[in-house]
Design goal:
Pfam families: HSCB_C. With 258 residues, this protein is mostly helical. The chain contains eight helices and two strands, in the order E-E-H-H-H-H-H-H-H-H. Strand 1 and strand 2 form a beta hairpin. The relative contact order is 0.19.
């Protein structure tokens, strides 16, 4: 009852072990609102591994919605302009709840990150890692542990398309129910077919081909999120993150088996 013509999604990947044909991922879904669904509960149950929350690290997130610069006087030497660490004396500063993840890396608050995020992350860890301040006071060691954890959370959040998208929406005060499922028959059918293809794949080449095609779908909805977010169309942006979650979980399944 799911197959309603050539428009439905299919995978056509060769399963090396059995010589059977597996349906191929089609051209990514067009960025339009999905049609109302009457997907069965059985279909939803079979999709369990692709659900779940691909969440934004939350240790500091609740305090990060504030904007504005976050530099002041160093608690140790009194020099002005101290940020996560003091540029004058090198002392690690206490966490400022007004600092968001983009400010930590000197980035604009936007979805498309062009700068070297990993390089900036490593630079901060060279200054903030607790092992580098083991000879300092207990207070500064505590600051270093908190700042280092904050930088790690920030890097993990901004380095992935979905968590970065969710974080941007969070900063704009948009709540996303990450447990909500999409009742779109075509998407649910596609997810089950991907799962079947992953389970049946017996070699890395087949898995890499599946992964590559799923990543293309993820990139398509990532671009759609960027366009919707820049236009402040938050309803469509939220829809994009919901679909991104399914494809990201599908990619994770291929990674587990590789």
């Amino acid at each position: 009852m799911w197959r309603r013509g050539a428009g439905l999604l299919r995978l056509h990947l060769t399963a090396a072990s059995a010589g059977r044909r597996v349906r191929r991922l089609p051209v990514p879904l067009p960025p339009a609102a999905p049609s109302p669904s009457t997907a069965s509960s059985c279909c939803c149950q079979n999709l369990g591994i692709f659900r779940g929350s691909v969440g934004v690290p939350s240790r500091f997130l609740s305090n990060q919605a504030g904007g504005g610069g976050a530099s002041g006087a160093c608690w140790s030497c009194g020099a002005t302009g101290a940020f996560l660490s003091c540029g004058a004396c090198g002392s690690v500063q206490p966490v400022d709840p007004a600092v968001d993840y983009f400010q930590i890396f000197g980035l604009k608050r936007e979805y498309n990150i062009k700068d070297n995020l990993e390089g900036r992350y490593k630079e901060w860890q060279k200054k903030l890692h607790p092992d580098l301040v083991h000879s300092k006071s207990e207070k500064e060691r505590g600051y270093a542990a908190e700042q280092s954890a904050l930088v790690i959370d920030a890097y993990r959040t901004l380095s992935k398309p979905l968590s970065r998208a969710l974080y941007l929406l969070k900063l704009d005060g948009i709540h996303v129910d990450e447990e909500k499922t999409i009742n779109d028959p075509e998407l649910l059918m596609e997810m089950m077919e991907i799962r079947e293809a992953v389970n049946d794949a017996s070699d890395s080449q087949t898995l890499e081909k599946i992964q590559s095609q799923v990543k293309k779908k993820l990139e398509t909805w990532s671009q759609f999120f960027q366009e919707a977010f820049e236009m402040k169309n938050f309803d469509r942006a939220v829809e994009a993150t919901q679909r991104m979650r399914y494809y990201e979980r599908a990619v994770e399944e291929t990674v587990k088996k590789l």
